[in-house]
């Protein structure tokens, strides 16, 4: 739901004296003293647009100050989220974004990159798609990796933000100039640090207050970089009671199967997107932990929509009263 509030509402009290001053200024008429032979002739002259416009200046000035007072009260609107009680698990997704993930994969009658297949399936897993129920009560995080690890998103219930971050996970394109192909940065993007990625995920999950903590590792290669061996990462996960589910986009899962089995998880060898759905169905059967909901609101400031028109109104009055609508004396 959309919330509205005034951060400093006491500023609105200034509207009372401001209104009285504006009313007094609008009712006050100046008495001109100009020597003229016959003033009765001036009464016959038609009123000009400038004369009519000048009568509006006090009201425009008062409206400008009223807008500034409204800006000082700091109106805000926000998106409120509330969850009374939920039962969920803690999930960390480790997504391989190395160059080989650009290889095509068949999904139905179309062929798309492995990374795009993984992103679509992960999005369905989070929000619900096809036969998947969605995971509104699970805290989910995201890690992307190549030859190095990127902590993209911590464990969160804000799945809208998580999916926006997911869309930013891209494969680094190859250099246009072949002579730059040996650039260390490009070379590292072609490597795969599986052990380091799982270790980073374990570090994020070890303090999570959930009965079930899960790492989902999706990769299409073997360990070719990194400091921590996959077997060491698996043993660390086992010691902390964290289950590891691996999805290999190769026909032979190899080390990924060994890692999953060591933690009591499962390994899926995938040549299409169905394996991802199988993993998520398996996770649905894990034990869930109750969590208390939180009410929070992310507010956006609205004062600029009042401040700038208010300043513009006052400036307009100053300019017009000094030029086109200037009056004597």
The CATH superfamily of the largest domain is von Willebrand factor, type A domain
* Main CATH class of the largest domain: Alpha Beta
Shape: elongated
Mean pLDDT comes to: 78
Helix vs. strand class: alpha/beta
In which order are the strands of the major sheet placed?
8-7-4-9-10-11
Question: Which value, in Å, is the CA radius of gyration?
Answer: 33 Å
Q: Can you give the helix content as a percent range? A: 25-40%
Beta-strand segment tally: 13
How many discrete structural domains? 2
* H/E series: EHHHEEEEEHEEHHHEHEHEHEEH
N- to C-terminal separation? 56 Å
Q: Report the β-strand fraction as a percent range.
A: 15-25%
Profile the largest sheet.
Answer: 6 strands, mixed
The tally of helices reads 11
The assigned CATH architecture of the largest domain is 3-Layer(aba) Sandwich
CATH domain topology of the largest domain: Rossmann fold
Catalogue the unreliable spans: none
Quick take:
The chain is of the alpha/beta class and 329 residues long. It contains 11 helices and 13 strands. The chain folds into 2 domains: 94 residues; 207 residues, 3-Layer(aba) Sandwich (Rossmann fold).
């Amino acid at each position: 739901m959309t919330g509205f509030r005034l951060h400093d509402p006491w500023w609105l009290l200034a509207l009372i004296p401001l209104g009285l001053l504006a009313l007094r200024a609008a009712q006050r008429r100046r008495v001109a003293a100009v020597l003229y032979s016959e003033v009765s002739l001036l009464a016959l002259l038609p009123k000009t647009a400038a004369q009519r416009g000048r009568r509006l200046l006090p009201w425009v000035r008062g409206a400008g100050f009223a807008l500034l007072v409204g800006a000082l009260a700091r109106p805000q609107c926000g998106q409120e989220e509330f969850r009374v009680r939920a039962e969920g698990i803690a999930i960390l997704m480790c997504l391989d974004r190395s160059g080989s993930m650009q290889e095509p994969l068949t999904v139905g009658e179309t062929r798309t990159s492995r990374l795009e297949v993984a992103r679509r399936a992960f999005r369905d897993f989070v929000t619900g798609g096809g036969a998947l129920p969605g995971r509104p009560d699970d805290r989910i995080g995201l890690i992307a990796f190549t030859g190095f690890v990127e902590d993209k998103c911590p464990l969160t219930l804000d799945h809208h933000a998580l999916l926006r971050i997911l869309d930013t996970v891209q494969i680094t394109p190859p250099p246009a100039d072949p002579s730059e192909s040996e650039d260390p940065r490009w070379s590292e993007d072609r490597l795969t640090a599986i052990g380091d990625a799982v270790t980073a995920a374990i570090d994020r999950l070890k303090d999570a207050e959930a009965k079930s903590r899960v790492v989902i590792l999706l990769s299409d290669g073997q360990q070719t970089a990194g400091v921590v061996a996959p077997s060491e990462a698996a043993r660390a996960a086992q010691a902390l009671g964290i289950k590891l589910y691996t999805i290999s986009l190769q026909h032979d899962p190899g080390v990924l199967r060994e890692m999953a089995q060591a933690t009591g998880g499962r390994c899926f060898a995938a040549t299409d997107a169905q394996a991802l759905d199988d993993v998520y169905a398996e996770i649905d059967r894990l034990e869930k932990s109750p969590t208390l909901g939180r009410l929070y609101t992310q507010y956006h400031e609205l004062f600029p929509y009042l401040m700038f028109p208010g300043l513009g109104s006052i400036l307009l009055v100053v300019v017009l009263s000094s030029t086109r609508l200037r009056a004597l004396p």
